[in-house]
Amino acid sequence: MSDTHAQTVAFVRHTQLPPAPPPARETGIVKWMRENLFSGVVNSALTIISLILVVWTVVSVFPWFANGIWDTTSLRECRDALEGATGACFSVLTERWNQLLFGFKYPPEEYWRPTLAFVLLLVAAVPALFAQFVPRKFLVLTFLYPFVAYWLIWGGTLIAMVFAAIGVIVAYFVFLRAERSLGFVLGLVTGLVAAIVTWTIGGMIAGAMSGVLALPEVPSRDMGGFMLNMILGTVCVSLSVPLGIVLALGRQSDMPIIKGICVVFIEFVRGVPLITLLFVANVVLAYFFPPGTNIDLILRVIIMITMFSAAYIAEVIRGGLAALPKGQYEAADSLGLDYAQSMRLIILPQALKISIPGIVNVAVGLFKDTTLVSVISMFDLVGMIRGPILSSTAWTGIYWEVFLFAIVLFFVVCYGISQYSQWLERQLATDRR
Amino acid sequence: MATITDPPSSGFRLSQLINDTRYRSYTFQFIALILLILGIGYLVSNLFANLAANGLDISWAFLGEPAGYDINQQPIPYDSQMSHGRASVVGAINTLIVAFLACLTATVLGVIAGVLRLSNNWIVSKLMSVYVEAFRNVPVLIWILIIFLAMSNVLPQPRAFRGDDATSSMFLDSIAFTNRGVYIPSLVNGDGSAIFWLVVLASIVGVFFYRRYARKVLYDTGRMLPTGWPTLAILFVPGILAYLVLGGPVTLEYPELKGFNFREGLHLRLSLIALWFALSIYTGAFIAENVRAGIQAISKGQTEAAASLGMRPGRIMNLVILPQALRVIIPPLISQYLNITKNSSLAIAVGYMDITGTLGGITLNQTGRAIEAILLLMLFYLIISLSISAIMNIYNNSVKLKER
Fold it and tell me: Where does the pLDDT of residue A240 fall: very low under 50, low under 70, confident under 90, or very high at 90 and above?
C-alpha cells in the first residue's frame, strides 16, 4: 500500500492563488539588459568598455560643438573669441558655404540655377524611383529633365535643348517604324541617322537664334564644389548604365570577337585605379582627338568616369544574367522571339531587377570616387577644401569644421541612396512572392 | 500516292548574311572587327598627328636618365642621381608595402567588427553599425586627409621628448609617436643571422606540416593528437635555441633623440602611417559587411544541428560555421584587397611616394612623357589586379561545391 494518505500533509489548498507578477529581474528593461548587455563575463566587459567609449566621446565632443563660433572672419579671431576654451570655428562655413557648394568661380547671382536644377532632380527622380506608386505618364518629366538641367546649369539658349529633345523623340519613332521592316540593328542605325540629321538642323537653327530664351553661359571650368560632384555622379552613372548593359550582353555572347573585345575592355578598366584614368583624361586623352580640337576637361573626365563605371556595372549585370535560370532563355526561344526581342521582353527585365542592389552599390561608390578629381586640380568639394580654403591666410590650419561639413554632405546622399536601395529590394522581393 | 520531295535547296542569297542566324554572327563580328580596326586606326593617327605637331615622340629612354629628385621613404637604397626606372621601382615597392600592411590590419579590423555586429549585445552591435555606416558612406580621400591632418596636429613634435620635463615619452621606451612619423627599433642582422632566420622560417613551415600530419592521423585512426601546445613549441623553441646558441645574432637598434630628430631606428613617415590607418579602417568597414553577410548566409539549422550533437559554441564556429562561411566571405574579401591596392594610389594626396607619386607624378611632370609613364603605371596595376584575380579564381575552384 502506498504511504501517502490525507493526514501526511498538514494543509491542502482549496482555491488557487491569484497569479503574481513576475519578479523584477525577469520583466521589462531589467530582463532585456540582463540578456542583451550583461549575459556573460565577456559580454559585460564589452558593454562596460563600449559605455565608457561612448561617454568619453560625447563628453569630449559636445563642448567643442556647443562653443562653436559662427560669426567671425578668420581663424585667429575665433581663437581670440574662445580665449583658450575648446570650441569649433564654424564661421568658416558661414563665410564660405557658397564656395563649398558651388565652387569659387560660379557667378553668385546665378546660384538659383543649380539650386533649381537640384530641386528638379529630386522631382524628376520620383517617377523613376517610385514607379509603383506614380502614374506612368509622369515619366515624361524624367525624360525632359536632362535637357532642362543642362540649360539651367550651363546656360545658352533653350532652343538648342528643345531641338536636342526633339532629336531624341524623332529617333525613337523612326526606330519603332524601321524596326518593323528592317529588324533591330538596322532600325537602330536608321534611328541614329534620323537623330543626327535632326540635331544638325537644330544646331544650325539654334545657332541663328542664340539670344532667344537664353540664360548667361557659364563655362565648365567655372563649376566646382559639391555641385561638381553631383553633376559628375549623376551624369556618369546615368550614361554608364546603358553602356554597361551592352558590355555585359557582349561579354556573354557566343561571338568570339565581340566577347573578346568586351572582356579585354572590362578587365582592363577594372584592373586600373580611377586615378590613372583621370590622369589619362587630363594629359593623354587630348592626343587622341583630331589636332586642333579643344575638348573641355570636364567632358574628358566624364568620358573616363563613364567608361570606368560601365565596366563595373557590366560585371554586376553579368552576375544578374548568370542568376537567371537557363529555362528563361529556352522559353524565349520556344516562343520564336529573336535575340533583341527576348532580351528586351524577358531576360533583361528580370536580370536588371536582380542586379539593382549591385548597381546602386556601384553608383554610391562612383559618387564617392568623384572626389578624386581634386587630384587633377579640379575644384570639387575636396579640391575647394584643400585649395582655396585651407591655403587662404584667414583659414589656414582649420580642418575639422570644413571636413565635417563635407562628411555630412556625402553621408546624407550616400546613406540616403543605400537606404533607398534596401527599401527597393524589400519591395521587389515581396512582389516575387 | 504521296511522294517525298526533297526540301527546296536554294542557293546562297546575300540577305542571308543578315537574316539567317547561321551567317548573321559572322556578319556582325566582321563588321565589329572592321569598326574596331577603323576606330583604333583613327585614334592612333590622331595621336601621331598631335605628337608630330608638338614635336614629341614615343620613347622609353627616359627610364634610364637620372631622376634628379629625392624620395622620402626608401625601402631600397636610392639617391637623386639614380635613374627614373629605379625611382619607379622604389615607388612600386612602397605601393606594395602599404597595400600589404593595410590588407592585414583591414582584415583583422573587419573580421572583429563583422562578428561583433552580430552579437547579442545591443550596444556593441549598434556601435559597430555606426562605425560601418559612417565609414562606408564617406569617400576614402576625405578620410585619408582627415586622419593625416589630425595626426600631424595632435601628435607631439620630436623636441617635446627632450629634457627632464619632457611632455611626451616613448612608448615602452622604444617607440616614439611624433608628428613626423613613428620611430620604431630596427633589426640589425649580425653574424649568423641568416641561420637564425632560416630556423625561424623552418619552424613556421614545420607547424603546417605538423598540423597536416595530425589531421591525417585523425582521419586514418580516429586518434586526436594535441595541436595547441605542440604548435607553440614548434613555433618558438627552435628559434629561441638558435638565438641562444648563435649568441644573439639579431639585435635591436633603438631610436634616440639627437639634435632635432630621432636617429637610428626605423622611421615610418607620417604619410605612410596615415595612409595605412585610413585604408585599414575604411576597408575594414566593407570587410565587416562581407563577414556579416557570410555568417548570416549560413542557415541557423547548421548551428542547431551541431548543438544537438553536443558541440560547444567554440567548436561549432570553428568546425561547422566558419568553413561554410569562408566560401561566401573570401571572394568579396579578395576584391576588397584589390580595392586597397587601387586606393593606395591616393597616396599622392598625403605626399607618400608610391608608384603613382613617382612614375605618375614627378617623373611624368619632369620628363613630359605622359603616354609612356601612364602606360607603365596602368601596366603595373593591371599585373597586380590580374594576379589577385587569378588567386581568387584558384581559390574559388578549389572550394567549389562539386556537383554532378
Answer: very high
* Cβ-contact A154, A216 below 8 angstroms: no
- Chain B residues whose CB is inside 8 A of the A281 CB are none
Q: What φ, ψ does residue B133 adopt, rounded to 5°?
A: -65, -40
Q: How far is CA B379 from CA A340, B74, B376, B382, B384, in A?
A: 37, 22, 5, 5, 9
CB within 8 A of B221, min separation 6: which ones? Answer: none
- The single-letter DSSP state of residue A346 is I
In the predicted structure, residue A1 carries a pLDDT above the cut 60: no
d(CA A403, CA A46): 31
- Give the pairing of strands B256-258 and B250-253: unpaired
- Give the one of B51, B127, B345 whose C-beta lies nearest to A287's C-beta: B51
- A288 chain-B contacts, CB cut-off 8 A: 43, 46-47, 50
Q: Which residues of A touch B141 (CB under 8 A)?
A: 371-372, 374-375, 382
A43 to chain B, any CB pair closer than 8 A? The answer is: yes
Give the whole-angstrom CA distance, residue A202 versus residue A395.
49
Please tell me if residue A410 touches chain B, with a CB cutoff of 8 Å. Answer: yes
Strand segments, DSSP code E, in A38-191 are: 156-157
Q: Which of B350, B348, B349 is nearest to B359 (CA)?
A: B348
Contact: B119, A275; criterion CB under 8 Å: no
Express each pLDDT in A246-295 by its tens digit: 999 999 888 888 899 999 999 999 999 999 999 999 888 888 888 878 88
pLDDT of residue A268: 93
- Alpha-carbon distance B12 to nearest alpha carbon in chain A (angstroms): 20
Chain B residue nearest residue A390, CA to CA: B149
- Collect all residues of chain A within an 8 Å Cβ-Cβ radius of residue B361: none
pLDDT at B155 over 70: yes
% of chain B residues with pLDDT over 70: 96
Q: In this structure, what C-alpha cell is assigned to residue A65? A: 560643438
Q: Percent of chain A beyond pLDDT 90? A: 32
Residues comprising chain A, all counted: 433
Do B50 and A273 count as a contact with CB atoms less than 8 A apart? no
Q: What is the pTM for the complete model shown?
A: 0.85
Partners of B262 in the beta sheet?
A: B257
Q: Greater confidence, B361 or A308? A: A308
**Distance (Å) from the alpha carbon of A219 to chain B's nearest alpha carbon:** 25
Nearest to A258 among B29, B343, B385 (CB): B29
